[in-house]
Amino acid sequence: MAQREQHSPVAIDAELPGRFSRVVRFLISLIFYAVSEGWDFVRRAAGKSRAPRIVVIYYHHVIDEHRERLRHQLDHLVRWTTPMHAGRNQVVADGSRYAVVTMDDGWLSFARNAIPQLALRNIPVAIFAISDRLGQVIDNVAFDRLLNADELRGLDPTLVTIGSHTATHARMTTLDEPNSFRELHDSREKLSQLLGREVNAFCFPYGEYNHRLIDLCREAGYERVFTCDAELANPGDFAVGRVRVDPTDWPLEFHLKLMGAYRWLPTAISLKRRLMAPLRGRSRIAATSISAPS
To answer: How far apart are the C-alpha atoms of 252 and 212, rounded to whole Å?
Structure first.
């Protein structure tokens, strides 16, 4: 039993929501989906077309035990959406649903278990690699490692787009501007040299970014950047939101994510931060008053 827990990504993945939070998000998304689909039906009945919907999803690990679950997810994806590449300005049709598959960090388990299944279904994928950590382990993960240089170079470029995930997997919002630019520029240069082709896509580690970092990505030469905000994408967007999926997602949970039903989350998170800001300010003032000498 202890060995199984050691090899479970859920046990050590701090980015995954807790069980209660997951259920709440699922229920809200289910209601949101029912309302939005009902409104779309009314609009279509009135003769109005629906804009194309593009949802970008992202994975991390796909361990051996989850291969069958992943297979079902990918079958569902091609049944309900049209897979598309991660690049900008692709042609899309009104009323159609599209999905972009991405993967953060460049884990070996994903390459071993997911890429063959993606290839069978002709689903392209973008993998965001950490240029200075190839072949290593990050975030105290004991059950997986990152692809090394040879493994990354050996991926089929017609199926797999390689993007940058910084040089060291740094939390970009904690760095000053010169170091932020160095993470962006050096990782892009190193990966481009390794692969023999331009690396034009970038993804922020831990989903942490701000508007200045978006501008720095432009200055570093990237053509598209990806966040972890669960928003719908537009073909011409430079900064694109994504929703996290995992092979362990419930089938209906995965469907809701694929349909864009989690797109209420960024607004809710932003509202929560605004509401909590005054409380945090009062807490800091109280702490200062208590610690101040009499």
So the answer is: 37
CATH number, domain at 127?
A: 3.20.20.370
- Evaluate whether residue 288 is within a structural domain: no
pTM: 0.88
Q: Tokens 């029912």 belong to which residue?
A: 34
To the nearest 10°, the Cα dihedral for 114, 116, 119, 120? Answer: -110
The two structure tokens encoding residue 113: 């278990």
Tens of pLDDT, residue by residue over 24-44, are 999 999 999 999 999 998 988
Domain count across the chain: 1
Confirm if 28 and 267 have CB atoms less than 8 A apart: no
Tokens 């900064």 found at: 239
Domain membership flag for residue 294: no
Helix (H, G, I), strand (E, B) or coil at 223: coil
Does the structure show a pLDDT above 90 at 281? Answer: no
How much is the pLDDT for 14? 53
Q: How far apart are CA 162 and CA 200, in angstroms?
A: 8
Tokens of 24: 């709440």
Q: What's the pLDDT tens digit per position in 67-119?
A: 999 999 999 999 999 999 999 989 999 989 999 999 999 999 999 999 999 99
CA distance 200 to 163: 6
Contact 89, 123 (CB under 8 A): no
pLDDT for 5: 38
Give the confidence band of 273 by pLDDT, cuts at 50, 70, 90: confident
Query: Residue 250 falls within a domain, yes or no?
Result: yes
In which domain, by residue range, is 132 found? Answer: 2-282
- Give the list of residues 6+ apart from residue 36 with CB closer than 8 angstroms, or none: 261
